Amino acid sequence: MIPLLLRIAVLCVALKLTAGAVAQPPPSPISTPELTLAEAIASALERNPDLRATRYELTAAQGRITQAGLRINPTLDLELENFAGTGDVHGIGVMETTLSVGQVIELGNKRDLRVAVAESDRGVIVQAQRARELDVLSDVARAFIVVVTAQERQRFAQEATALAQNTLGALTERVNAARSPIAEQSRARIALTRAMIEEQRAGSTLQAARASLAALWGDGEPLFGRASADLFRFEEPRPFEAVVEAAQLTPDFLAFASEARLREAELRLAQARARPNIAVSLGVRRLEDSDDFGFVAGFSRDLAVRDRNQGAIFEARARIAQTNAEQQAALTRVRAILFSLYSEMSAARLLAETLRNEAVPQAQTALSQVQAGYDVGRFSFLELATAQQELLQLRAAAIDAAADYHSLKADLERLTSEPLSNTDPEAPQP
Predict the structure, then answer these.
(1) What tens digit of pLDDT does each residue of 75-134 get?
(2) What are the boundaries of each domain within the chain?
(3) For position 211, what pLDDT does the model report?
(4) Could you count the other beta carbons within 10 Å of the beta carbon of residue 290?
(5) What are 98's strand-pairing partners?
(6) Helical H runs in 355-380?
């Protein structure tokens, strides 16, 4: 049902990350008689309010890269000596004025390492942004499934109401012909009332689902028609181990790699900061008593006696080990979640196919037989109502199982960032 998810995600994420946080006017609301999942995803990625706000983080990260690459500003020093004192140095007769320019020279390639840290930090933000984009994709897919399921349930409720109406009409004729007791007509009216209530409830549920889907791209009310998809289309999933391998290539796990690069860059910067910088200065000095000028030069360097930045280096190494441990823990958790979702999805698919292909046709056959027997007086109305109820329950269970399958499939595709099936993503969809 969602085979285009990866292709659309990669394309849209690339476009958004390239564009950065450039403000653009919001596109027009979606107004179409048939809404596809691809259209819903594209609109949500374009207009989702949270995504539009978080993209400014990339612009801020670029500013940090620029700042990290700037050199330290030079200093301008003015120094006055030997004035306003006593004896020979009273007044300004023997005052010495020194004007100098100083510059700190960073050793250990610190500026480039600062830039490397800022760029690695931007890489972490990029992966986090991609993960947020995939979260939106997953939310849209699930909301889309809910709408499709609600549409199917509404159609099913309408058919159930029609069945109840037909049954009541036929039973009324039998009562008028004195072939059935009036109590059966009352039971048929109650069944019709229940069916009509369920139809109204199904309609309200569908409207709520449509509103939730439209909210993901910022529309206050749904302007699209029906969601176009086949709830009972099932695809053969890839082997479980291939799913696990795909999960390790998602932005969630690539974020660990970006985090590791950031931590390694921080370690190199911490090691470089252990090497003291030097400061040099050059200036000119004027002697008031002789009206002479002379040049002065200076040099200074920290003595790395106590502070060799050993604490920061120790912390950076600990952060690297922490990131590696978190990655292994996350892989263990995700593998367990994937196995659970994969098993439940397979079970839901088997149940939906069994109900739709075997149980529902058998119940329909049984209902036809009971209906024929009821018409000739071989079965009671209670037996007819029971057969009808069994068919309705099986059809409802098939819808629920199919909805569970697609919901679980959407969860798995979020964790793997790609379709679970081996079908061609360019193939036309229903």
Answers:
(1) 999 888 888 777 777 777 788 888 899 998 888 888 889 899 999 888 888 888 888 888
(2) 5-71+106-274+309-416, 76-105+275-301
(3) 93
(4) 8
(5) 79, 285
(6) 360-375
* Closest by CA position to 1, among listed 344, 393, 349: 349
Q: Largest alpha-carbon pair distance within the chain?
A: 139
Q: Please identify which residue in the block is written with the tokens 């029971």.
A: 386
**Environment class of 302 (CB within 10 Å of its CB; exposed 0-12, middle 13-18, buried 19+):** exposed
Residues 6+ away with beta carbon under 8 Å from 253: 247, 327, 330, 331, 334
3-state SS class at 80 = strand
Q: Which amino acid is at 400?
A: D
Which one-letter amino acid corresponds to residue 390?
A: E
CA distance 108 to 126: 29
CB 122 within 8 A of CB 62: yes
Cα–Cα distance between 340 and 342 in angstroms, integer? 6
What is the spatial order of strands in the sheet that 75-81 belongs to?
A: 75-81, 96-105, 278-287, 292-301
Into which CATH architecture does domain 5-71+106-274+309-416 fall? Up-down Bundle (1.20)
Mean pLDDT of the chain: 83
Check the CA dihedral 229-230-236-237 and report its sign.
Answer: positive
Q: How far is CA 21 from the centre of its chain?
A: 18
Please write the tens of the pLDDT for every residue from 208-232: 999 999 988 888 788 888 888 888 8
Q: Specify the pLDDT at position 94.
A: 81
Q: What are the residues facing 279 on neighbouring strands?
A: 104, 300
Axis crossing angle, helix 240-247 with helix 310-354, rounded to the nearest 10: 150
Structure tokens at 177: 């012909």
Q: Give residue for tokens 């969601």.
A: 227
| pLDDT-above-70 percentage for the chain | 90
pLDDT for res 328? 86
Rounded Cα–Cα distance for residues 66 and 233 (Å) = 51
Tokens of 186: 């009352």
The residue written with tokens 């008689």 in the block is: 33
- Show Cβ contacts of residue 425 under 8 Å, excluding neighbours closer than 6 positions: 3, 4, 6, 7, 419
287, 96 in Cβ contact below 8 A? Answer: yes
Distances from the Cα of 397 to the Cα of 156, 227, 354, angstroms: 11, 21, 11
Mapped onto helix, strand or coil, the DSSP state of residue 258 is helix
Helix (H) or strand (E) holding 257: helix 251-273
